[in-house]
Amino acid sequence: MSENTNPRTETEPQTETTTTGTDQPLTTTAGESVEQTRDEWTEYEFAGEAKMTVEDLNVHYGDDHALKDVSMEIPERSVTALIGPSGCGKSTYLRCLNRMNDRVSSARIDGSVKLDDQEVYQDGVNLVELRKRVGMVFQSPNPFPKSIRENIAYGPKKHGDLDTGLLARLLNRSDAEERDELVERCLRDAALWDEVSDRLDDNALGLSGGQQQRLCIARALSVDPEIILMDEPASALDPIATAKIEDLIDDLSERYTVVIVTHNMQQAARISDQTAVFLTGGELVEYGETDQVFENPRSERVEDYITGKFG
Amino acid sequence: MAGVSQTDTRLVESETTGTDAVAAVAVGLSTVLFVLAVAALFDRASLTGSLFGVQTVTLLGGLLTALGVTVIAFGVGSRLGYGETNPDPSAGLIAGFGAAVPWVVIGGIVASRTLGLGPGVGVVAGVATGAVAFAATVLPREDLGSTVPLGALLGVTGVVFLTGAIGPTWLWELGWAQQAAITAEFLIPVSTLFTTLYGGWASAKAYGGFGARGRHMGAYVLVYLNALSIVAFLFILVAFVVVQGIPGLLNGTEFGLGTGPTMTVFGVSVALPVSVPFLMNGVALFNDFQGVLPAIVGTVWLVAGAVVLAVPLGVGAALFLTEYAERGRFTQVVEVATNGLWSTPSIVFGLFGFAFLIPRFGNGKSLLSGMITLGFMLLPLVVITSREAMLSVPDEYRDASAALGVSKWQTIRSVVLPAALPGVVTGVILGVGRIAGETAPILLTMAGGTFVPGSQTVDVIGGFQFTASPPFVANPALLEATSALPYQLYALITAGVGASSNVGNADEFRWATALVLLVVVLSFYAIGIATRYYFRRRLRHT
User: Peptide bond before B471: cis, by omega within 30 degrees of 0?
Assistant: First the structure.
């Protein structure tokens, strides 16, 4: 009990210092004495380029302060796992990266999110382009009530990249071949092609949950994104389907930057290159290489959380 | 020792099957009585006549008494420990109130009328009898409580019929200024029906051995009977109209080549091989057989016009309210307004059309005014149901589409609307069902006369003309007064004896009109249901 309560009570005042001072992380790295009380370890050195850079991100839902001063850099072509107890703001954080939180009318977002050094939160950002580059897969599989083929072709069609409409067919300009190539490529990338290649015109709702989720991943790939955000993609699936999704994520990370929220710490440990731990109150407490975070966490609270003492 | 155990076993065995059989007999008796009562109510079994060699009233009374005795015997037997039942300590408050209601009525009427003690004493006596029945239901163990008061009710009713205290010719003059009277022909079937429902309830409970299972059986019987009676009433209604309407409808029907009229659709002429004058003629002096063709065509165009007007407007409004408008005061006001509009009486819509539309469209009753009036009537239901349908489209679809970078309008068009379409179509079906049978607005905005000549059949497609002045397209057919079936029926019913001189057998003509109206409305339903089925299929099994 005392192990649990002590770090929490210690950090209580620090939350306020964090909100007031903007260059706290610097102080943390500089002053060794401060870090015992601060208990926030978000500096992470990685080799490659940063794909997304988040600085001082704050999100309020009405009076609720859901995310507090989160800063982190997401490296390119890797898997970044976001873990933490329920209600810690990890999904909120994820939805800020492609501005899906704009759709929640009560949400107020301050701070900076940069995609390849371009600010995402500024006037004149083309949301269509942003979301094409930053795709998303949701917690529960949500294919459209359309055929498998149409589910995949939906995005490109709506962006005008594929035209298989009646007029195009009449003018002999139909992109049906390109569409079928795209459908096959996306389904292969999502490791679903072998299972559904003979029934592309069946309704997607007839697939199993795991197949539906892989279809949703294939659909996200169809608009050729650079980053794929996944919000607990395997939480509604059985162990076998989960294993397939995990293998798939591993494959995807060779070409895409994957950011995945998960409740399952073993999953995070298995699939991710780096892990960010959010704890209750919307704070990012520790961010670092996955092995280090799980085996040798710098934060006491994170250690408690990972070993199951808290959260 | 051995002997005792042997008798025990025998007792248990025989009684187990015995109780089941007794309860099953009671349920069967209730069913028979229910059917007999319904038959008597619809004059299919004469009360003065006899059934199976027994006078009908006596038969009903005997069966009711038998059912009552069986129910009580079962309850008492169960209380005394015969049979395998599993009763609760009490039948419960709901059963208590259920049993009290008929006893209040009986106690009140007997005290005030039969004993002549006046209404004041009647109320007191009614409440007292009800209280006794309530107590008798709630206080004893369930097997007694749920059988004895209801069994007594059945028994009393049965004995009253059996002894002839209320015979087939019984009449209760209420003696009011309205000259109202309750006849045995009404009272006997209705009271049989009600008491039988109670008897069926009690015997179903008994069949389930009381307790939770018994209540389940009782509720099942009541609910099942409810559903069954709805289907039965619909069937009786349709069958009645069909039987009455068929002779008038088929009057003068001929089959064979060359008998039918020649139809011209888009320049192609087809000679129909069948002639049904009632559907193909108007009313004219030299017609062999008269018909209601103008009204049929008028109804179809009327509904088509109203749908064309209301559906785009309604769906558009619903779209705005669900997808674009922020939830707030404005949407609330619109919601209240649409609900209010839906409950506005149709005659008020009619009056609005009469006072507002008619002066603006040629100053005479016209098809167009009728279409617009009915369109306004249809509008609120389309808005309400489309809204519900769109709200029930899961947000996950919208999220998924937005996450692909698809714009809001494209999302609505390709995801929300297709998913909402079955619901929207349901709304339109319900609305069309209402407006297609509407009489009052047509009376005020569109209808011509009681007997409509065939020449007044509107030809909306052929009526379009190009004109030299703006708006360059005119359609005089839309501005003509024409008839519609509900109004035609109303006019025929109120035409009185004069009708016969025009159409031969006026009664047949009326019933045939009613039948055609029914068929037309049901066909709109059928079209709507087929459309909904199509969209649902497309959504689920592409």
Answer: yes
pLDDT at B541: 61
Element (H, E) at B319: helix B293-319
A183-214 burial, b at 16+ Cβ within 10 Å, e below that, comes to beebbebbbbbebbeeebeebbbebeebbbbb
Does pTM top 0.95 for this prediction? no
Selected for mutation to probe chain A from B323, B404, B413 (highest A CB count within 10 Å) is: B404
Question: Do A142 and B396 lie within an 8 Å CB cutoff?
Answer: yes
- Give the residue among B288, B293, B263 at the shortest CA–CA distance from B278: B293
CA A280-A284-A287 angle, to 5 degrees, is: 130
Question: Does B35 score more than 90 pLDDT?
Answer: no
pLDDT digits (tens, 9 = 90+) for A32-57: 444 444 567 777 877 788 889 999 99
Q: How far is B266 from chain A (nearest CA, A)?
A: 27
Neighbours of B248 (CB within 10 A): 26
Contact B165, B182 (CB under 8 A): no
Q: A137 to each of A67, A202, B403, how far by Cα in Å?
A: 21, 21, 8
Q: Provide, as residue numbers in chain B, all residues whose Cβ is less than 8 Å from the Cβ of A106.
A: none
Q: Which tokens sit at B413?
A: 């068009």
CB-based contact, A159 to chain B, within 8 Å? yes
CB contact under 8 A, B399 and A201: no
For residue A223, the distance in angstroms to the closest alpha carbon of chain B comes to: 7
Using alpha carbons only, give the angle B70, B74, B80 rounded to the nearest 5 degrees.
145
Q: Cβ distance B503 to B451 under 8 Å?
A: yes
**Residue A260 φ/ψ, nearest 5 degrees:** -130, 130
Which tens digits make up the pLDDT trace of B122-170? 889 999 999 999 998 888 888 888 888 999 999 999 998 888 777 777 7
Residue of B115, B203, B110 lying closest to B154 (CA atoms):
B203
Half-sphere exposure of A190 (CA within 13 A, CB side): 30
DSSP state of A103: G
**How many H-runs (helices) and E-runs (strands) does chain A carry?**
14, 10
Distance of alpha carbon B194 from alpha carbon B204, whole angstroms: 15
| Chain A residues inside the 8 Å CB shell of B540 | 145, 203, 205
Tell me the pLDDT tens digit for each residue of B272-301: 777 777 787 777 766 777 788 888 888 888
> What are phi and psi for residue B330, nearest 5 degrees?
-60, -50
Look at the block and give the residue holding tokens 């704070």: A283
Task: Report yes or no: B293 and B457 within 8 Å, Cβ to Cβ.
Answer: yes
Of A134, A97, A138, nearest in space to A276 by CA: A97
Q: What is the 3-state secondary structure (H, E, C) of B187-253?
A: HHHHHHHHHHHHHHHHHHHHHCCCHHHHHHHHHHHHHHHHHHHHHHHHHHHHHHHHHHHHHHHCCCC
Nearest CA in chain B to A95: B403
- Distance CA(A178)–CA(A192), nearest Å, equals 19
A152 to chain B: nearest residue by CA? B404
Is some CB atom of chain B closer than 8 A to the CB atom of A106? no
Q: Are B74 and B23 in contact (CB under 8 A)?
A: yes
The CA distance from A176 to A165, in Å, is 9
Whether A218 shows a pLDDT value over 90: the answer reads yes
Selecting from B410, B415, B542 the residue whose C-beta is nearest the C-beta of A201 gives B542
Name, in order, each residue with C-beta under 8 angstroms of A79's C-beta and a sequence gap of 6 or more: A249, A250, A253, A258, A259, A260, A271, A272, A273, A274
* Token pair recorded at residue B95: 């059963």
Q: Which residue of B has its CA nearest to A126?
A: B405
DSSP 8-state code for residue A163 = -
ipTM, 2 dp: 0.79
Angle at A55 between CA A50 and CA A61, to 5 degrees: 125
